[in-house]
Amino acid sequence: MLKKTAVILCGGKGSRLGSLGKKIPKTLVKIHSKPILWYVLNELAKNSFNHFILPLGYKGYLISKYIKSNKDFKKFDIELINTGENKKISQRIEKIKKRIQSKHFIILNGD
User: Fold this and answer.
1) How confident is the model at residue 21 (pLDDT cuts 50, 70, 90)?
2) What percent of the chain has pLDDT over 70?
3) What pLDDT does residue 11 have?
4) How are beta strands 51-56 and 5-9 bridged, if at all?
5) What is the pLDDT of residue 60?
6) Residue 82, Cα to own-chain centre: how many angstroms?
7) Cα gap 33→90, rounded to integer Å
8) β-strand pairing of 34-35 with 51-56
9) Predicted structure pTM score
10) What DSSP string runs through the chain?
11) Cβ(6)–Cβ(79) under 8 Å?
12) Tens digits of per-residue pLDDT, 51-103?
């Protein structure tokens, strides 16, 4: 099967979210009872993306826990990569670039 990779950046600290950003990463902020990440993954899947790389940073363990405990995502090929809490976007991409499995891919923010 042809791989179509999406890199979803999930490393920001959410400092503009105030106290909410201190509790959870921006990617897990809920809209209509679902985290933003749920919408991002499902929209990408609807558009034929079948390989997802999530470079994790700030509170990445919460994102990992959410992905692993959600049965909706069992059908997806998701790689959770801890890229460090205080890394710049360019450093996160450098750490995961060899995992990109398609000639044409997308990189987007998880929020």
Assistant:
1) low
2) 90
3) 74
4) parallel
5) 92
6) 11
7) 32
8) unpaired
9) 0.90
10) ----EEEEEB----GGGTHHHHHS-GGG-EETTEEHHHHHHHHHHHTT--EEEEEE-TTHHHHHHHHHH-GGGTTSEEEEEE--TT--HHHHHHHHGGG---SSEEEEE--
11) no
12) 999 999 888 999 999 999 999 899 999 999 999 888 888 899 999 999 998 88
The length of the chain is 111
Place of tokens 């000639």: 103
- Six-digit token pair at 78? 């998701």
- Give the position of tokens 């997806």: 76
Phi/psi of residue 84, nearest 5 degrees: 100, 145
Q: Strand 77-82's sheet: what is its strand order?
A: 77-82, 51-56, 5-9, 105-109
